[in-house]
């Protein structure tokens, strides 16, 4: 006999699956927009996406959800907190309550503002003029403060922003992490730069900036994706200006890549990053698609997978011992004089820069730290919007020893704030920490991974990740997943230890 | 002051635009399915499409449409039958009444049956066994008869089937057209074959069956599309197993092409056909998108555009005088020994075959005629489903002098019946007739088009088509459009005259 609670739960599942169906159509509209939409069709695409977004919001705020949740939460379905049903109920409750706290007028106003602000941000960046973007950023900050007031009772508006992307972290937690990194990273950076300078065999980063035909880079990276385990029967590879990964439905994970003729590192490591994301998406349990158990644990854990394949895999010696012959076949002239060791050194070369996306893995988290401090101060009001460029430049000088020439390579570099994504940046760093901890544990369990990679064995690591991370969907939070897998709390030390060990091995 | 009728009309327009928005999302799902969907995602794609189809059907059968139509039709908005408002009301009324006559249970049953029958048709074709498909076809015929009973009071069920695709033609009209073609085409075919046999310079069709790399064929056809006027700022070119054209939204017309290494004719003429369709779609008035005035006049007129560019343009001497140098640059070895005259003869070579899609333009309408006679007899019951293969083979022997070896190259060749598309085939022939009449008139107005093509001028013809056909949307029916443009009723004589004249010029 089906109880009332079970019926309510079944109704919820059906409702989630309908929401997922609408969302999956939206995902396709966005994928297509970014990979092949003709310019003349942009405006209508905006209307299509807004229409489906409206339908999705209508479904997600259906008051019956509240009634179904009330019934199911009070039943045995919610008794064991790690059971499928309890996990789905917990996450659905979080999403529903969040949505119900936001007034419809604010949601619509923010959607309009995001569209306009992104447009203005692009124009401002093109003409390298912050003042053009300033009024839009000011409006955005006001609305995000309003949003924070609706979402949380904390006196720190940034708490609510973090909660949008990552549960279980307060501003104080994140501050403490970044404070530790701010203390430790500069010393590590100095040590690595000194090691590089004194290296017996110096790095040849110019090797990666020869003329590499994009079409052959694509061929290499497509084959590499298949070797690493990306399943083309349940995925596809496209092209876009900014690389990204999108799960369009169960059995349909797509990665969009970009290749530049004179920057092999950007093409290959951008691809590795997206492949990492895609392996996670393809490893989620398809039978749970449309319910929280079929979704990634968190943005941070998703990012950890991109970073793990980009850095722990792609920057290992074994990886290049395996892949260099294939690369050299495609680029016999350009790669003819390079050994696996040469490429390994070149891809690991550390060099402070002004650009987050292209940063090496020693300086990367300094870029994130700067954004975290600034966006938090913007929200509290400690930093007036007009002072952002100066504050940005000051911090780059302090942390990386360089000052941007203008806002294009400074505070107009990333589009997150124009998109209303305050609180998103920390997930990058939390993901880096988690990646380092996961890799450390993987090597404890599996032995040295670099040797496996040298034999072309990427399945051992992938299978381990699948059993530790992919298959659990949203069952565990970021912190729980890390603790459960590694026996340790989330921590910055393994990241620093790993970087130090790799660079000592590289340059001594 | 806005009248009640005007308010009702405005509400209708808003409602149409919402339907169009949903339909456009569906179009993208289908385009993506046919051009890049991974195999593993097929099943979910079916669910996405069915979901949006359900939403679309719900909108299209909203009873408020009937109320709005009633109000607007009795007002001055409908007074002038060729005004924008009257045309939109006329077409909306037709669509609405048709949908309201179909019981929901039948619509759903047909949708399920189409999915299953298409699947079974593919399997039956693979194993070359009609009996496997027979029960599904029998079920389909039953349902289509039911549908005909709902849609029309005619004693001839085929009338309702025709009305699905083309208004203003009765079964008797179409029968008369095909009877005339059955009388005239065999004599023309014999004349052309005799001419070819006696030609002083024989055709070299083998020229088109050398090894042509698909990637270079694609390069040629993409450049050709741009030269003919396909606008890539409002369109894109993809790849699929069966070439097709799809209007995904205003400013977003896409063509999917296919290239075979050893069949240049198929690649280039398939592309020309789709480019013809696409030029029409891109020429529809975008400001009317979502309303009947922004839609093509009819399937036949759409087909006429595909056929016009495929045959009247692509099989002219001038076309090859212009394009051969470009083709020869891409295929210097394969095309090195061919003159424009050689290619012109090769692409026009007539040869009866068993395959409709690959048929030359003299025999093409005989293939359609056979399908028309058979599908009509299936619906009346004069032809039992079990006897279809024998009847098919008999007619191929009678009209084309050949008998298929099995159903794969016989009655399982086309997927139309599995898709429930009875009454669709005649639009191919009506389109061919219309194309010939349009070209005859164009040459009266513009002078010999082949000479324009030789100069690379395709804009003169395109502009003429735009003013005569494209810009009118659904204002005129097929017959009205032909009469208005050419001063003549729809007729088969210009097609026969044109074919005879071209082949006499070619082979004498």
What does this entry show, briefly?
Chain A has 508 residues and is mainly α. The first copy, chain A, has helices at residues 4-35, 42-60, 63-73, 84-101, 104-126, 130-151, 157-165, 171-198, 214-228, 264-283, 299-313, 317-330, 340-348, 364-380, 388-400, 425-446, 449-454, 459-468, 478-486, 493-507, and strands at residues 235-239, 244-249, 252-257. Chain A has a 3-stranded mixed sheet.
Write the layout of secondary structure elements.
2 copies of one chain form a homodimer.
Chain A: H1 4-35, H2 42-60, H3 63-73, H4 84-101, H5 104-126, H6 130-151, H7 157-165, H8 171-198, H9 214-228, E1 235-239, E2 244-249, E3 252-257, H10 264-283, H11 299-313, H12 317-330, H13 340-348, H14 364-380, H15 388-400, H16 425-446, H17 449-454, H18 459-468, H19 478-486, H20 493-507
Parallel strand pairs in A: 1-3
Antiparallel strand pairs in A: 2-3
Helix pairs in contact in A: 1-2, 1-3, 3-4, 5-6, 6-7, 8-14, 8-20, 9-10, 9-12, 10-11, 11-16, 12-13, 14-15, 14-16, 16-19, 16-20
- Work out the count of structural domains of chain A: 2
Task: Count the E strands of chain A.
Answer: 3
**Which structural class best describes the helix and strand composition of chain A?**
mainly alpha
CATH class of the largest domain in chain A: Mainly Alpha
What is the helix fraction of residues of chain A, given as a range?
55-70%
Supply Rg of chain A. Answer: 23 Å
Which protein chains are joined by the largest interface, and how many residues does each one contribute?
Answer: A-B, 34 and 34 residues
- CATH fold group of the largest domain in chain A: Neurolysin, domain 3
Strand content of chain A: under 5%
How much is the average pLDDT of chain A? 96
Quick one: biggest sheet of chain A?
3 strands, mixed
CATH architecture of the largest domain in chain A: Orthogonal Bundle
Helix and strand run of chain A: HHHHHHHHHEEEHHHHHHHHHHH
Give the oligomeric state: homodimer
How does the overall form of chain A come out from the CA principal axes? Answer: globular
Q: How are the strands ordered across the major sheet of chain A? A: 1-3-2
Query: What is the first-to-last residue Cα distance of chain A?
Result: 70 Å
Q: Output the number of helix runs of chain A.
A: 20
State the low-pLDDT regions of chain A, or none: none
